[in-house]
Amino acid sequence: MVSEDSPEYAEAFEWDDDAVEQGNTTHIARRNIHPNEVEEVYANGAPIYMNKASGTGEWMMIGTTDGDRALTIVMNYDSVRRCIRAFTGWPSTPSEIARRDRSSQ
Fold first, then answer.
1. Helices (H) and strands (E) in the chain — how many of each?
2. What's the domain count of the chain?
3. Which of 18, 32, 41, 90 is paired with 68 by a 20 to 30 Å CA distance?
4. Handedness of CA 88, 18, 8, 72 (dihedral sign)
């Protein structure tokens, strides 16, 4: 059973204003990812994992956009507000795609 402390219960995404130089919207834009793509990955049922790497986000999702672009997104989840805050992302590597595919079987 999935805990309510898990991003699967999210109801919203938190995005900083584009003008905020250190904000999450600007950061993912530097990686050629648009906030809509992050939300598509989530809406398309991407598997969500605890992020084992040390860094900014405690969660990671690996999935595809509506345009079939495979992305890996690192994020945090506020269970009180039921809100996801994506920190960074990149085009998924072959090993990340394989992990995602194993999770969906």
1. 3, 5
2. 1
3. 18
4. negative
